[in-house]
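Ticket reopened. Same input as before:
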Amino acid sequence: MMMSTQIVTPELRDWIVAQAAAGHSSAVVVEAMKASGWGEQVARAAFEETLAEQDRLAAAEESLPARPMPGRRITAALPRVPAGDREVAVLMAMTRPRVVVFGDLLSAEECAELIALARTRLARSETVETQTGASEVNEARTSDGMFFLPAEFPVCARLEARIARLLDWPLENGEGLQILRYRPGAEYKPHYDYFDPAEPGTPAILKRGGQRLASIVCYLNSPEGGGATTFPEAGLEVAPVRGNAVFFSYDRPHPSTRTLHGGAPVTGGEKWVATKWMREGRFE
Ligand code: PD2
Ligand code: ZN
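Engineering reply: fixed in the latest deploy. New output:
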């Protein structure tokens, strides 16, 4: 018997995959294909070959070496991590979103020193305007902020070196520390820290160090109320506690990383944080 061959178009392949994913048996799918003019043998072969191809693609993706990422090896099974001049505690670690909460990252004196150095330079926070690459004042973020240059003061250099050791990520790939102060009522609405590849200003931003891969938000004080760092898609809230930090990473600039996060409104006192972002390459 001559086997007639019929081309499996991308649309048909997607349809077959969707049918199988919806739990329809091969018999049901083959019947539906026969009803639209396919021969039984050909329909069965197309169905099986399509699913086999799908499995091969999934296996290839799984076996790709995972890319190096800041903080890759950190686990709560090793609850104290040497970080050069200090041992840092791992209080919580999770995988999707990738989030780690650290304790004892900064001393009380370091927190106070960073606040004192930043205080006189605060201005209403701006975010990068991804249309143009310029900065703009943004209603989603009602804090005041400033940036230190990398290693601008000894306390900055010390913290940057500690974070580089902790996360096993090159010092040169880190942006300068950003300090934010939230007064009562101030907040940072949920957002992603990576640069959206679909925005026209992103290519210009990426020329300097490539994408952001990870963020570490260090708490410089403990506000009297509110101010948690939230991950709405994970139902996670991290309490701002002086000297602690929340770290999260995103191996692609995509919502599938589930790294949507925000700063909840402060309800009592002020909240001060130092944020550091890690880039793919040298940031200079
Ligand atoms: O201050 C925070 O909790 C916070 C929340 C979300 C900081 C940032 N994002 C940030 O600096 O990107
Ligand atoms: Zn953020």
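The first strand starts at residue 80 and ends at 82. The chain is about 25% helix and 25% strand. Please confirm and we'll close it.
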